[in-house]
Amino acid sequence: MGKTAEIEFTWPKGFYSDGLHSGLRKKRLDLGWFFSEVPASAAGVYTTNKFCAAPTALTKKTIALKQQLQGIVVNSAIANSCTGAQGQQDALTEQLLMAKKLEVKPELIGVASTGVIGETLPMEKIKNGINKLQKTQNAKITEAILTTDTHPKTISIQFEQAGKLCTMSGFCKGSGMIHPKMATMLGFVVTDAKVSGSMLQEMLSNEVETTFNQITVDGDTSTNDMVVTLANGQALGQQIPELIKDTEDYQVFKEVYHQVLSQLAQEIARDGEGATKLVEANVLGAKTKVDAQQVAKAIVGSSLVKTAVFGGDANWGRIIAAIGITAADINVDTVDIYFDDIPVVTQSLGTAFSEEKVAEALSKDKVTITVDLHNGDKKGQAWGCDLTYKYVQINASYRS
């Protein structure tokens, strides 16, 4: 890959943002926006939950018109989901309010919400809040979108495109109700590179399969998920032709994009509600890529595996059980399992291993489980977290 560098979170050229407390929450920031000074190529992926929230449906429809967007307004605290005709009208009102303030067409504005399902938005507070938002380059929106998250999740990477220095920055929220295709997560990526909307959509649709769709916290999928990318071309990079995929610029952009999405996805898994450990599952030797991805996600999604990790218990039988319930093509006599690089199962039989060394591996902030199926040459990866007492405490009183 060409020369790239991860830097402190910064907005790419031509992007602006702000965030504030509008009164939706008691004290924390709860409303924000970000926008480009010019219309940008846009791409999005969205929840597969049948009860798609009004703002999510509106943004999906808006991007589909011309694969363009200029900005997005986001609120936390209230999801504006399952709110009927009133919710749809409120999402449209948010779109119009932001468009009017920026003096752009409404069809260039997206809307996103996250929070409690079933409650309508207090539109007077939303209106007053949007009127107070400013054209700044602060990072307050990365805080304004949070719900049960413990911290903002951000990344910025600089790279070259056609000899020009470009920046790609991403931020997201998500902590519970995480089991994408998709989950209660919002992810936004912006770049000043110049990319066609169709190419951006193709990349996002492909990359999300090995990043955001490979994380799980609790197996629940929300109504408000979306990941949206805007590319405004303000770094004056050469546009990537839609069908030419063998150029160096294309490869660099694609790999940076993957790095941004992958790191944001892992940060969501790491910050799972009540979590103390990030769990990474690496699957080798699968017959197909789909098999590898499916097995990896089954492992990190298993409640029994998650509780074993929390307790530091080297109970590899729970991993075997998780693998065995998938639809993947498995040879039940050839499975190897490792905690870090310590073999605990060889050819589907338990091995003599040091309990002390495995306990040490399971005590780390990041627990790595590797499975070799010895049934092909494909590999996959997924991320999750441990399941703790704190998760129950958080979700037992979430609405109140």
UniProtKB/TrEMBL annotation:
It comes from the Bacteria. Coiled coil: none annotated. One of its GO terms (cellular component) is cytoplasm. GO terms for biological process: L-arginine biosynthetic process; ornithine biosynthetic process. HAMAP family: ArgJ (MF_01106). Pfam families: ArgJ. It is found in: Cytoplasm. Pathway: Amino-acid biosynthesis; L-arginine biosynthesis; L-ornithine and N-acetyl-L-glutamate from L-glutamate and N(2)-acetyl-L-ornithine (cyclic): step 1/1; Amino-acid biosynthesis; L-arginine biosynthesis; N(2)-acetyl-L-ornithine from L-glutamate: step 1/4. The record marks 114-115 as: Involved in the stabilization of negative charge on the oxyanion by the formation of the oxyanion hole. This is Arginine biosynthesis bifunctional protein ArgJ. Catalyzes two activities which are involved in the cyclic version of arginine biosynthesis: the synthesis of N-acetylglutamate from glutamate and acetyl-CoA as the acetyl donor, and of ornithine by transacetylation between N(2)-acetylornithine and glutamate. Belongs to the ArgJ family. It is an enzyme of class 2 (transferase). Gene3D superfamilies: ArgJ beta chain, C-terminal domain, L-amino peptidase D-ALA esterase/amidase. Heterotetramer of two alpha and two beta chains. Keywords: Acyltransferase, Amino-acid biosynthesis, Arginine biosynthesis, Autocatalytic cleavage, Cytoplasm, Multifunctional enzyme, Transferase.
